[in-house]
Amino acid sequence: MSNVKPVPTPMSASTSLSIRDGTPLADGAEYRTVVGCLQYLLLTRPDLAFAVNKLSQFMHQPSTTHWLAAKRVLCYLAGTYTSGIFLSRNNPLSLHAFSDADWTGNRDDYTSTGSYVVFLGKHPISWSSKKQTGVARSSTEVEYRAVANAAAE
């Protein structure tokens, strides 16, 4: 993957992965290895959280479509290998949190994914992207759950 063309985002905005997408891979070991390695990068790369969360949902039965999505994340990393969290001395000590959720974003079970990021000054110090356990009745309920998770952090 040393001569790949870098892409600007880890996952395309139009990508909607499902368990029924593509042809199942004959051996999913390589897919699981790649996604497992990407999970370690989440410690310093919050920009990968959503994409890796989505890819992790298909570890038990990956398909060709999921493999292509994983390769896109690797192409993104090829163009951003010098990026990371940089803390400066002149950082004001103000705490800000942002949250978001996608209502019924999962086409398989209609659950939502809630995400948040917490900044100390202008630097991210905590983030999460988790699939919510229940199906929400409204987008307001989903957003409330995401805000509650961010506030708890």
From TrEMBL:
Superkingdom of source: Eukaryota
Q: What is this protein called?
A: Reverse transcriptase Ty1/copia-type domain-containing protein
What organism is listed for this UniProt entry?
A: Arabis alpina
